[in-house]
Each structure stands twice: as structure tokens, then as C-alpha cells.
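A.,

Following up on our hallway conversation. C-alpha cells first:
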């Protein structure tokens, strides 16, 4: 056997065969390394849909590598002697294969980067870490954009990205004369509901995926979630089909209804492409190009196309920049000193709040919720309840199929929980139950009244909104965007404030959810 030159380390979210790690690959002297390890499903209590998606996509990518003639050393989760962690498995395989160096594309998780570095150092190997050109913007370019700015808002980064890449531009000006069409993209469904929404692309599990489903159901039987409706794309061809179906059938109304939610309807007009993007089965450039072509061809209106492209070219790139320019200390931020435990019923959906129950059950069933359900339902409740942000982060990282830490952590800790003190958001995103009542019909079938702030009938969101303002009044009063909301506290008498505090205390004691759920994280802890 010829001496092995480069061992190319490929992680479960690096499933693009044109990655920088493969530059100058020589099948005569190089090989690829991939491993499924149990530790990656237990760092957080990873749900069955999330684990199954990663494993199924990895196994299909392994077939693609072999078809491309790239020698592969692949360790399955159920292989005899599996070392259990990325670092241990890599060190074991280095001893067996004896490469002269390791090569990899920059990973998306700080913890994983440290593990790979430690494995290389332990075996005395050099590690060549190459830029991840999957993204429009490198970490160095983002750092240059951020340098010297007092505030780092996504909108200005997004505009710079539009100009740099010539997306939706007429010369130096934005198409349509404005950069942002959010004002046109906030409609709720009428009383009759969303109507006949085109279905999402269904990918029936093949033999390989069914093997993974059986393995996950056995190996991780105690983990949350279900796999009986698993239909996520796990190959590039499937992901491309999902992209084209979305652009053709749902993009035209995506913008108008992107903030709307409806009971029992998880998919609506959303794209459901984030998991495929984050696994790198899709390239964001082709996603943006397809959407822009739909506008140029007159197939989709500008407001929808701009709103969608902003998520890919703007927000997705922005949160990655935030992550890599602020880690590892970003994970420890807790600007509001939130110390409550995440309610255990977040793992079961066993609560009598209709909107939250629907979002939780949907998430556990499919590994998916749209951005409003994440930010303004599950995230909003945790924020106003005062849950420790690391626990909220661990839950989001565990339950969503598209969760990779570089994208999940800033969205959760920064945008949703305001734990970074304003690095990402100019204010905490808080609202009463009236917001959910405006955007969905959940309140009609709920035992709680969003117009009431105290008493047993009071909507917990409304109670916790006023309680949040009272608990953080001094700090929030210094924020110009929160000043008006804080001033509204003056309308409440001391007796009314006391009633709100008492009701909030009962909510924190678990009055709105099951006390003893069927599932809870091992040891009761969500922090890694």
C-alpha cells in the first residue's frame, strides 16, 4: 500500500464534493475520512429527526465520494470498535492509516474545531484548515466589515452584500428603489386560513435512509422526536428538486405570508431548504440565483424574492460572521442574567397554551418550525420566562434538523434571547399574546385570554411581557427602542403590578405545563 499523503477530514455538515478540502486531491496518495460517532448525538440531547438527517445524508455522500473515485475511510455508528467521539475516532484512525498530514474545510462548530486540532496535535500532524467557500462572505471579510463599527446591524451588511455580488441591483441602486420590503411581508391568513398551499417536496426514504431510521430508533430510543414522517432530502439531487419546487410553487406567496402561522400546518409557503443548505447539499449561490431568476422572469413578485434572498445572502451570512468573530466567549453571554430552567415540557409539548403546544409538537414531530414559531412562540416564551440562555441554545441545537452551531447559536442566544446585550438585535423582541392572536387563530381555541395580564385566564405571554418590563425596567428604559414600552408601566397601579408578579410566579412554577413529562434530558441538564 502506498504511503498516505493527505487524510481529508469531512464532517457531517460538509457534504459538498467541491469543497476546498478536496483541492489538489490525488486519489493515488490521498483519502477521505468520515465518522459517525455517538458523542455528536449526545453533546446535546439530539432529536431523532436531526440525528437521522445527519446520518442519512452522510451515508449518501459516502456513496457519492466512492462514485467519484475518492478513497474513503468511513466509520459507521454501529461499527465494532467505534471510539464514540470525533477526536478519539480520528486519533485511532491516524494510528492505523498514518497520513503525513490532515486537511479539512473550516468547520461550523467551535467545539468540533478544537477536537480536530487536538487530535492532530496529539499525533504530531499538521492540520491544513481551508476557507469554506460555500459562503458568500469569508470570516475575514466579515471581520473587516465589522471593524470600527459601534453597532453591527444585519441591514447594512446585507446592503453591502447585495452591492458586492450584484444581487437584485440596477447599477448601484436596489431593484425597485428600496433595499427592504418587510412592510409588504407581514400579512396574516384570513379567517378561512391558508387555503390550498402547494405541498412541500416529499422524499420517500430509500433503503439506506430506512436503515438509518431503524438505527436511530434503536440506538437513541430515549431521545425526543419521531421518525414516522421523515421525508427530508438527504442527497444533492433531492435538495435541488426541493429548491426548484419551492421556487415554482411557493416562492410567489412566500413573502406575503412568511410571518403567518396556522395550527396543524407546519409547512405553509416556506422553503424548508435550510437543512440542505447547512449540510451543504445546496450552494447558497444557486439558491439566490434561482430566486432572482424567478423575479426577472415575472414568476414571483419582488417583495417575496427580496425577503427570501435576504435570509440567504443577508441573515445567514451575518450570523456566521457573528459566531466566528465572537466565539468562544459568545456562548457564555447572559446579559439579562436569566437563570430559570427550561420547562421540561419543551421536550413533549405537554402544555395548555395552544400556540406553544402546536409549535412544540410540530418541532418534535418534524424537526422543523418556521422563524416566527422559533422567535415569537418558543423563543419569546423562554425569553420572558427568564430561562438561562445556554439551556435555550441547547434545546434549539437539539431539536431542529437544520441546527449547526454557527447558525443556531447567534439566532438563539443573540436574536431570540437578547443574551448578547445587543450585538445582533437593537432590543429584546418581546410581545404580549396579542401578537400571536394577530398572526394566527391559536387564541380562539386556547383557554387563555391574550387581553388579560393577571388572573388564571390571563395569557402567559401577556403576563410575562409585563413581568419582563418590570424586572428589567431600569435597563430597558435606557434603550431608545424600548422607552415607549417601558413608559406603559406607569399605567399600572401597584396592585396591578403585584397581581402580574404573582401570576408570573405561578407560571414559573409550571402551572401552564405538565410537571412530570414522559421525556427529560439525561440528568436534567441541557448545558454541555
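Then the amino acids I'd put at each of the 528 positions:
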Amino acid at each position: 500500500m502506498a504511503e498516505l499523503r493527505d487524510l481529508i477530514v469531512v464532517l457531517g455538515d460538509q457534504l459538498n464534493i467541491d469543497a476546498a478540502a478536496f483541492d489538489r486531491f490525488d486519489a493515488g496518495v490521498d483519502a477521505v475520512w468520515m465518522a459517525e460517532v455517538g458523542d455528536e448525538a449526545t453533546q446535546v440531547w439530539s432529536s431523532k429527526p436531526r440525528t437521522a438527517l445527519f446520518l442519512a445524508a452522510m451515508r449518501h455522500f459516502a456513496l457519492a465520494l466512492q462514485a467519484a473515485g475518492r478513497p474513503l475511510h468511513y466509520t459507521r455508528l454501529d461499527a465494532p470498535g467505534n471510539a464514540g467521539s470525533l477526536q478519539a475516532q480520528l486519533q485511532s484512525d491516524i494510528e492505523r492509516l498514518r497520513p503525513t498530514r490532515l486537511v479539512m474545510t473550516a468547520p461550523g462548530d467551535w467545539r468540533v474545531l478544537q477536537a480536530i486540532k487536538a487530535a492532530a496535535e496529539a499525533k504530531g500532524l499538521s492540520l491544513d484548515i481551508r476557507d469554506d467557500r460555500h459562503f458568500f462572505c469569508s470570516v475575514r471579510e466579515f471581520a473587516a466589515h465589522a471593524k470600527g463599527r459601534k453597532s453591527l446591524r444585519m441591514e447594512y451588511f446585507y446592503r453591502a452584500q447585495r452591492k458586492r455580488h450584484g444581487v437584485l441591483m440596477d447599477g448601484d441602486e436596489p431593484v425597485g428603489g428600496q433595499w427592504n420590503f418587510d412592510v409588504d411581508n407581514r400579512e396574516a391568513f384570513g379567517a378561512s386560513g391558508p387555503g390550498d398551499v402547494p405541498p412541500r417536496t416529499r422524499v420517500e426514504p430509500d433503503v439506506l435512509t430506512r436503515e438509518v431510521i431503524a438505527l436511530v430508533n434503536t440506538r437513541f430510543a430515549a431521545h425526543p422526536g419521531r421518525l414516522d414522517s421523515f421525508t427530508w432530502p438527504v442527497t444533492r439531487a433531492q435538495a435541488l428538486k426541493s429548491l426548484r419546487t419551492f421556487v415554482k410553487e411557493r416562492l410567489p406567496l412566500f413573502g406575503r405570508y412568511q410571518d403567518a402561522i396556522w395550527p396543524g400546518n407546519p409547512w405553509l409557503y416556506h422553503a424548508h431548504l435550510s437543512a440542505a443548505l447547512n449540510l451543504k447539499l445546496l450552494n447558497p449561490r444557486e439558491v439566490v440565483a434561482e430566486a432572482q431568476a424567478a423575479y426577472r422572469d415575472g414568476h414571483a413578485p419582488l417583495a417575496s424574492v427580496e425577503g427570501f434572498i435576504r435570509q440567504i445572502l443577508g441573515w445567514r451570512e451575518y450570523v456566521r460572521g457573528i459566531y466566528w468573530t465572537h466565539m468562544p466567549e459568545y456562548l457564555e453571554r447572559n446579559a439579562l442574567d436569566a437563570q430559570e430552567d427550561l420547562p421540561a415540557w419543551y421536550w413533549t409539548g405537554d402544555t395548555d397554551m395552544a400556540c406553544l403546544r402546536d409549535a412544540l409538537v410540530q418541532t418534535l414531530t418534524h424537526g422543523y418550525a418556521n422563524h416566527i414559531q422559533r422567535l415569537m412562540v418558543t423563543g419569546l416564551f423562554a425569553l420572558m420566562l427568564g430561562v438561562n440562555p445556554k439551556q435555550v441554545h441547547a434545546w434549539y441545537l437539539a431539536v431542529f434538523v437544520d441546527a449547526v452551531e454557527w447558525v443556531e447559536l447567534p439566532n438563539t442566544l443573540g436574536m431570540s434571547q437578547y443574551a448578547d446585550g445587543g450585538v445582533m438585535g437593537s432590543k429584546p423582541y418581546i410581545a404580549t399574546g396579542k401578537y400571536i392572536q394577530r398572526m394566527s387563530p391559536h387564541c380562539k381555541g386556547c383557554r387563555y385570554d391574550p387581553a388579560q395580564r393577571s388572573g388564571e385566564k390571563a395569557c402567559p405571554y401577556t403576563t410575562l411581557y409585563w413581568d419582563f418590563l418590570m424586572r428589567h425596567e431600569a435597563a430597558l428604559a435606557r434603550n431608545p427602542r424600548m422607552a415607549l414600552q417601558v413608559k406603559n408601566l406607569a399605567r399600572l397601579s401597584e396592585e396591578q403590578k403585584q397581581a402580574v408578579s404573582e401570576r408570573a410566579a405561578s407560571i414559573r412554577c409550571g402551572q401552564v405545563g405538565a410537571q412530570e413529562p414522559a421525556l427529560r434530558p439525561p440528568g436534567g441538564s441541557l448545558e454541555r
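Residues 524-528 have pLDDT under 50 and may be disordered. Curious whether your intuition agrees with the design.

B.
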